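Lab meeting, item 3. Inverse folding demo.
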C-alpha cells in the first residue's frame, strides 16, 4: 500500500463518519468501515463493491478517491476511466479528474500519454499562487510527487520568485529522500533566509547516512563560498559540516580564514568555538581562542576569548585530560589576568578558579582562603555568588585544619539562605563535617531532615550518609571502626590520599 493511501485510510474512517455520514444518514457507517477494512486487508473486490455503492449514494470526493484507488488495484482500468469521465462531465474544471486520467495511463505503462496530460496541466498554470498550490496538492494526493515538484518549480517561474514554495519543496525532497535536491535547495535559500540554518542542519543530519553525504555537501558549500566569499551563513554551514565529520581543525582553519578575509570582529569564530568545546574538541577550541586573543585588546572579543581560553584549559585540567604539571602555568595565567584587571565582578570567574587550583591542585589552601575572602569583599555581588563563595570557603577551612570555622560558615549559609537550595547544600556539608569529626548523632539528625529536601541529589546523599551511620554504629566496636572510616574520608577530602589508604587498611 502506498504511503499516501495509508495516510488517507487513517484519515478516511474518521472523516467520512464525521462529515459525509453525518450529512447523509442513509449511508451506513458500518459499510464504510467494512470497506476500509477490506481495502487494508487487500480484499479489493469486496472493497470495490462497497465503495461503489457508497460513492453512488454520496457522490463525495472522499469516496471517489478511495474507490478510484481500489479500481486501480484491481486493474479495472476501463471501469476507472468511466468513473473519471463521469466526474469530469459533472465538474469539468476540476483538475483532479484530469490527473486521474493520467494516472490510469501510468498504471497501464503508458508514460507518454500520462506525461502529456501532466505537462499540459503544469504548463497551463496561471500566475496564481493559490492555483499552483491546488494543482501541486492534487498531484501529491495521487502519489505523483515528481509532478508536484515540477508544479512548484513552474510556480516559481510564473511568480518570478526563486524562493517561492521553498518549504513545500523541502518537504517533498525530504519525503522522496532526494538528498542532492535537498542540499541544493537549502544552499540556494540560505543566503536570503539565514534563519533557516537550524532547520537545515537538523533536516540534513537526519537525511545523511554517512560521511560521504557530508563530503558531497561540503563540495556544494565551497562552491557557494567561492561565489559569495563574504556570506557568513555559508561559513557557518561549512563549520557545522566539518563538525559533523569531526574535522575540527579544518573548521577552525576555515573560520580563521574567513575572519581574516572579511576583517570580521571575531563574532563568527567566537560563537563557533563554543560548539567545539561542547563536542570535546578542546585543542581546536584553545587554538581558536588564542587566535582571538592575539588580535589584541582593542578587539571586542579579546576579554571574552581570554575568559573562555582559561575556562577551557581549566576544564581540561580538572577532568584529567591535561597533565597536572600544567596547573602552575594555568594558575599564573589567572594571576596575570587578576593583576591586570583587578578583582571585580567581571574577573570573578578568574578568582574563583584560582582559589580552586590553589586549594585542590597546588596544595596551598591558605592562599585559596585569602582569595575567597577577597572575593567576599567585592561590592555588589549577587546573593548566589556570596553563598557559593562562603561554601567554598567552608570547604577550604577544612583543608587548613579549621573545622570549627568550617562548621560555623556552613551553619551561617544554612540560616542566611533558609528555604533555598543552597541552604540544604550547606546543611549537608555541616552534617558531613560532623561525620568526619565523629559526631554521628548530630550528623544523623541533619540527614533525617535533609532526606525530605527538594533536591533529589541532596536527599539521596543524606539518605546514604544516614544509612552508613545507622548500619555501622550498633556498638562501641562498630563506632570505633566508623570513626576510623570517617577519618579516612576527611583525609581524602583534604587530598591526603596515602594517609587515607593507611587509615582504611587499619579499619580492615
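The presenter then showed the designed sequence:
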Amino acid at each position: 500500500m502506498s504511503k499516501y493511501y495509508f495516510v488517507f485510510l487513517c484519515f478516511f474512517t474518521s472523516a467520512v463518519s464525521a462529515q459525509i455520514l453525518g450529512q447523509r444518514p442513509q449511508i451506513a457507517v458500518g459499510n464504510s468501515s467494512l470497506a476500509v477494512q477490506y481495502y487494508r486487508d487487500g480484499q479489493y473486490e469486496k472493497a470495490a463493491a462497497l465503495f461503489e455503492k457508497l460513492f453512488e449514494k454520496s457522490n463525495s470526493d472522499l469516496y471517489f478517491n478511495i474507490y478510484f484507488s481500489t479500481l486501480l488495484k484491481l486493474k479495472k482500468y476501463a471501469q476507472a476511466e468511466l468513473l473519471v469521465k463521469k466526474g469530469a462531465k459533472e465538474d469539468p474544471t476540476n483538475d483532479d479528474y484530469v490527473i486521474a486520467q493520467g494516472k490510469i495511463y501510468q498504471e497501464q505503462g503508458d508514460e507518454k500519454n500520462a506525461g502529456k496530460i501532466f505537462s499540459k496541466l503544469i504548463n497551463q498554470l496561471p500566475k496564481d499562487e493559490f492555483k499552483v498550490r491546488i494543482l501541486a496538492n492534487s498531484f501529491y494526493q495521487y502519489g505523483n510527487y515528481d509532478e508536484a515538484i515540477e508544479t512548484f518549480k513552474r510556480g516559481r517561474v510564473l511568480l518570478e520568485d526563486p524562493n517561492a514554495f521553498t518549504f513545500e519543496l523541502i518537504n517533498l525532497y525530504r519525503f522522496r529522500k532526494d538528498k542532492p535536491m535537498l542540499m541544493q535547495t537549502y544552499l540556494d535559500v540560505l543566503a536570503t533566509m539565514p534563519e533557516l540554518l537550524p532547520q537545515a542542519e537538523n533536516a540534513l543530519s537526519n537525511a545523511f547516512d554517512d560521511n560521504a553525504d557530508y563530503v558531497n555537501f561540503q563540495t556544494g558549500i565551497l562552491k557557494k563560498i567561492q561565489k559569495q566569499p563574504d556570506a557568513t551563513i555559508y561559513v557557518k554551514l561549512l563549520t557545522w559540516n566539518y563538525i559533523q565529520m569531526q574535522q575540527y581543525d579544518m573548521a577552525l582553519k576555515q573560520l580563521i580564514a574567513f575572519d581574516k578575509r572579511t576583517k570580521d570582529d571575531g563574532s563568527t569564530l567566537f560563537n563557533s568555538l563554543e560548539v567545539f568545546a561542547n563536542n570535546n574538541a578542546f585543542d581546536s577550541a584553545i587554538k581558536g581562542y588564542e587566535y582571538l586573543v592575539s588580535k589584541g585588546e582593542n578587539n571586542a572579543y579579546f576579554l571574552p576569548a581570554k575568559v573562555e581560553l582559561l575556562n577551557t584549559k581549566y576544564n581540561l585540567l580538572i577532568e584529567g585530560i591535561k597533565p597536572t604539571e600544567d596547573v602552575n602555568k594555568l594558575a599564573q595565567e589567572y594571576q596575570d589576568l587578576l593583576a591586570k584587571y583587578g578583582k571585580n565582578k567581571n574577573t570573578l570567574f578568574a578568582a574563583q578558579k584560582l582559589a580552586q587550583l590553589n586549594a585542590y591542585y597546588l596544595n596551598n589552601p591558605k592562599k585559596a582562603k585569602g582569595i575567597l575572602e577577597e572575593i567576599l569583599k567585592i561590592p555588589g555581588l549577587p546573593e548566589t555568588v556570596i553563598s557559593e563563595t562562603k561554601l567554598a570557603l567552608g570547604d577550604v577551612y577544612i583543608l587548613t585544619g579549621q573545622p570549627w570555622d568550617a562548621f560555623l560558615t556552613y551553619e551561617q549559609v544554612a540560616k542566611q539562605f533558609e528555604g533555598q537550595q543552597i541552604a540544604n547544600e550547606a546543611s549537608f556539608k555541616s552534617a558531613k563535617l560532623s561525620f568526619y569529626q565523629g559526631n554521628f548523632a548530630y550528623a544523623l539528625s541533619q540527614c533525617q531532615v535533609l532526606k525530605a529536601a527538594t533536591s533529589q541529589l541532596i536527599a539521596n546523599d543524606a539518605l546514604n550518609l544516614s544509612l552508613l551511620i545507622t548500619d555501622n554504629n550498633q556498638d562501641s566496636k562498630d563506632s570505633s571502626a566508623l570513626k576510623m572510616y570517617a577519618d579516612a574520608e576527611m583525609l581524602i577530602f583534604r587530598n591526603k590520599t596515602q594517609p587515607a589508604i593507611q587509615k582504611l587498611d587499619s579499619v580492615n
